[in-house]
Structures are given as C-alpha cells and as structure tokens.
Specification:
Layout (H helix, E strand, L loop, with lengths): L6 H7 L8 E6 L4 E7 L2 E8 L2 E5 L15 H29 L6 H8 L12 H4 L4 H17 L13 E2 L2 E2 L14 H5 L11
Antiparallel strand pairs: 1-2, 2-3, 3-4, 5-6
Helix pairs in contact: 1-2
Length: 199
C-alpha cells in the first residue's frame, strides 16, 4: 500500500506552524491531496502522473509551471505561494485604496514620480532590482514585457549611464555595476526600513 503522507509534519518542515493555516487533508490514501488556507488565500497540492502540482485559483500566473517529484518540495512551494499571494493581495488592497483618491490616476502618478526634475529617462540599477522580493521581480518582468510589446519599433540605438554629483561627472560606484558579484553589505546600506529583502 502507498505510504501515508503526514501533511501536517510537511507543513512544519516547510518552516511554518501548521496551526497558522486551515489545513484540509483531502482525497484518499491512494490519491492524497492537501488544501492550505491562510485568511482568504487558498492553495492546493494534488498528485499528477509525474509527481505533485501546486495550484491557486487566486492568481493563476503565480502557479509553479512544473510538478514536484517529492511531496515535501510541493508543500514548501505551496507555503511559499501562500506568502506571495497574501503579499500581492495586500499590495493590491493598498493600490485600491490609493486609487480612491480622485487625483491619483495613472499619468498623474507617473509624472509625480519624476517630481520637478526634467529627467527624460528612468534608470534603475539591475543589482538593486535583483535584491527586491521575488514577487516584485516577477511583476516587473511582466511590465517590461508589456512595454516591449507596446513599442516593438524602437530606434536601434544604445544608451550609456553616467554618474553625476552636483552636475559634475563622478566615478560610478562599483557595487552598482557588478550585478554578478553583488556587494551585499554596500547594497543593504541603501535599503529602506519598510522594504522586504529579496531572495
């Protein structure tokens, strides 16, 4: 007979207290399934031919595209997915509240981001983006892909970034360039107190 799966211990092994979730051990011994609920976030783990899949109907774009051969790996992915969905819902709630302000439409917010500067470009260091949370990087990649789809005929020109201070050229800090070997100590000195650390 198949070995019985102890979902509770697997959730505990994933680094969380099982009591923090509503856990449903669904299915049968032959077809074991797990349902995780945290607040109004639901995630399911269920067997497929080549292992276990993890799925949420809340944000389908976050569902892992692969199956997991080991149920413990699937449970870890499910716990991580619950956290990501909960964070995204929180961010969406914050965004919805901000949208209630009549003046805060998309163009106004974008122009306001540039402040009173005459900047024509937005430049973000890759090494800092790589230290943002996984969900932020995922959404940023989606936005960049949407940007490229909207402007497929851009001029075939390159750009260069130069560092300035008080209007004068200065050497670019090395840690802002070397994204392959990030200087985490230098990067963390830039982090704001409310920014969660990236993966």
């Amino acid at each position: 007979m198949p070995e019985r799966i102890d979902w509770y211990e697997m959730v505990r092994a994933a680094g969380v207290d099982p009591d923090a979730f509503e856990i449903d051990t669904l299915g049968t011994l032959d077809v074991p399934e797990l349902g995780l609920k945290f607040g109004d976030v639901h995630v399911a783990v269920f067997p497929v031919e080549d292992g276990y899949r993890v799925h949420t109907a809340d944000y389908r774009d976050l569902n892992p595209p692969v199956s997991f051969p080991d149920p413990q790996q699937a449970v870890q992915a499910a716990v991580d997915l619950v956290r990501v969905v909960a964070r995204r819902r929180s961010q969406k709630a914050d965004a919805d509240l901000r949208k209630l302000r009549a003046w805060e439409n998309g163009p106004d917010r974008l122009h306001a981001y540039f402040g009173l500067s005459y900047a024509s470009w937005l430049t973000l260091p890759r090494v800092l983006m790589a230290r943002m949370p996984d969900d932020w990087q995922y959404r940023m990649a989606d936005l960049l892909a949407e940007w490229e789809d909207a402007w497929p005929e851009q001029p075939e020109i390159g750009t260069r970034v130069m560092a300035t201070r008080d209007g004068r050229l200065v050497p670019m800090p090395r840690f802002l360039i070397d994204y392959r070997h990030p200087d985490l100590e230098a990067i963390e000195r830039l982090r704001g107190p409310k920014t969660p650390e990236g993966e």
